[in-house]
Amino acid sequence: MNKFQPSCLPTLIGSLPIKDHQEAADLVLQYTPEIPLWVQLPFYSEEGMLAQFVPGMPGLKNEGGKIFVDSSSDTFDMEFLSFYETYMEVAEGQKDVGDTIFSMTPETAQGFFTLAERLSGARDGLAAVKGQITGPFTFATSLTDENGRAVFYNEQVRDAAVKLLALKARWQARELAKFGKPVMIFFDEPGLTGFGSSSFISVSKEEISQCFEEVFEAVHAEGGLCGVHVCANADWSLILESSADIVSFDAYGYFDTFVLYPNQIRAFMEAGKILAWGIVPTLSASDIEKEDLPSLLANWKEKAAKIEALGIDRETVRAQSLITPSCGTGSSTLENAMKVLRLTSELSATIREES
Fold first, then answer.
1. N or C: which terminus of the chain has fewer CB atoms within 10 Å of its end residue's CB?
2. Angle formed by the axes of helices 21-31 and 334-354, to 10°?
3. 245-271: per-residue pLDDT in tens?
């Protein structure tokens, strides 16, 4: 059983449409002070889902802004060997992960260091801290080799990609644990929406599960909680049946497909795990503009009742829930992003006041 019960506290998903990391941290601490996260700003190309976490991959090339792994280069074998030597030194405790290629830097993750600096001061009311990283399936199907083929289909390079993410997630968990509160690391997996389609016809569920378990184990080794975030439809059994502690789903737009997994949801909740309800819309400007606190509260209550109808009592649902936006707001207007933050905070407070 997870010891951490968020009891419908709010937290955010990833990105904001602004240019200043200090301003981003201000907004996070204003609207979600109980569970702050470090923010990714899409304004900076180095903070993209691939670019932010790819440094350290063997054979990495960047030509004209195109990032890929050149496994045919003369130096690839040497880089590959060096990568695994460093990995083994960390795994065997010979080297601290923070002193290796697996640590993150201000050059690509300024939001992380900005939040850490802010949290080093007063932390009144802090309940947990949230980090995030691109998930292994999305990462390895987005990163290509010199021929334009996804590295997921090269078992050797895929293994390196998964190990890179595992130790970068472990580094985050270790650093955030310094604030003395539970740490949640969310793996962003938009690529899972394509699993089962013709695009990934040769990919098996077992292959994805193996990738998941390796990155989850790294976070669990540091005492952290693992979440998986998908902002559309997916084969939810992949997450619900895994060792993930949190499933972060678009409850606003895709609840009806999520609830098609009643047995898995029931087992997930009975294990003390957490639902992160993406109940505040972000993906459609018209949805953001039309919703308000009463409409979202009614929406959440209706859907929470359907989870209760699976045989899970109301107190458990509320204790093991987070309230979040359905996805990041990096592509929204600033006005709409601010509304999303405000509604997430107000909806959480209202639900908690009524419980």
1. N
2. 20
3. 999 999 999 999 999 999 999 999 999
Return the pLDDT at 198: 65
pTM (predicted TM-score): 0.96
What whole-number distance in Å separates Cα of residue 300 and Cα of residue 297? 5
Q: Extract the tokens encoding 70.
A: 């050149």
Buried residues in 169-199 as b, exposed as e (16+ CB within 10 A): bbbbbbbbeebebbbbbbbbbbbbbbbeeee
Gap between the Cα atoms of 52 and 122, Å rounded: 28
The residues near 143 (Cβ < 8 Å, ≥ 6 apart) are 50, 54, 57, 67, 68, 69, 150, 151, 161
